Amino acid sequence: xxxxxxxxxxxxxxxxxxxxxxxxxxxxxxxxxxxxxxxxxxxxxxxxxxxxxxxxxxxxxxxxxxxxxxxxxxxxxxxxxxxxxxxxxxxxxxxxxxxxxxxxxxxxxxxxxxxxxxxxxxxxxxxxxxxxxxxxxxxxxxxxxxxxxxxxxxxxxxxxxxxxxxxxxxxxxxxxxxxxxxxxxxxxxxxxxxxxxxxxxxxxxxxxxxxxxxxxxxxxxxxxxxxxxxxxxxxxxxxxxxxxxxxxxxxxxxxxxxxxxxxxxxxxxxxxxxxxxxxxxxxxxxxxxxxxxxxxxxxxxxxxxxxxxxxxxxxxxxxxxxxxxxxxxxxxxxxxxxxxxxxxxxxxxxxxxxxxxxxxxxxxxxxxxxxxxxxxxxxxxxxxxxxxxxxxxxxxxxxxxxxxxxxxxxxxxxxxxxxxxxxxxxxxxxx
Length: 431
Fold this sequence. Notes:
By secondary structure, this protein is of the alpha/beta class. It has helices at residues 21-24, 30-36, 38-44, 85-97, 116-120, 150-167, 182-192, 222-234, 240-250, 266-272, 275-279, 283-292, 328-340, and strands at residues 16-19, 48-51, 101-106, 110-112, 142-144, 171-174, 199-205, 218-220, 258-261, 296-300, 351-355, 364-371, 374-381, 387-390, 399-402, 408-410, 416-419, 424-429.
């Protein structure tokens, strides 16, 4: 299995920050986000902003007072709740001016009940035995599109093209991509690639849908998310199961596809719990893992606070930024390291990962990322007890500095690292 397209050059060093526009500011607008938070996120090291759907939301069948982002009523318009198209374009321009990219959520499988196509092109939709529009997944505020209809596919691609040409966006995060046949995504990327090289991120797990990674640059890691949550809840010190999950991802075809690592997103936060409900103190080492393992790290709105409340999905529920942003420097150090250290380049054939023998392998997740003569050592304590990592047999040499404390270590003279419960250490070579 081969990838049909080469990724954008900036894929190897990028990170993705999900913006929940409605809840991000009291105003819930593009303009408020642009003025109040864009500079801060740039300073934190964010490279790519992923905006949850920016299109208008259907009124018919609406849930709550404001409805679901994912019940679109027009693919070629902006949700007035967030502002105007000019507001969004200004946000994209400002992001580009400071070196950031912008991708938007694209919901292809379904629309809301009063999407403009239901009147203009009712033949674009699937119908049940009673001749009514329906959704096959039980989501009663949306209705499924019929991807056997070629005109619908072309109109969908035209709408995606419109966003690239009009707003100069840099890619798409494709919602529930596996619900749409992979042939459509081939068709869409073939049409859009000559216009602009884009980032294509799929909301699916490559383990379940490997053929989609012929088209998409990166996909989610649901299996890892579930395995780490189960590990934390079990209280086990045994990490072999987690290593097995990572090994399965590492050998997946096609070569060059990337995994997106995360501990939270809009669905997880609202429906399944905050990262602290799911992982407790394991949240911190998992955040370090997401930034240092091979792939793309995803960060959700407010994780840098850290946000410890579930955000409402269909109603206004602003993030409380007044409490102070405690993890800004934590993420900044990690994001800057990932952006600039060659050993942490994602999807680069020259960069590789190796497990380290620490003489106390359980419950330590210990690995080195390496690229030629450059190295980063990552030690993660997945337990509530202090652990000692002995790196004398790791085969690494030279002087290293710990990312968070700036302590230095010469591996020829010193090889023991003491980790507090649920702690993370990142040792960076001093080149």
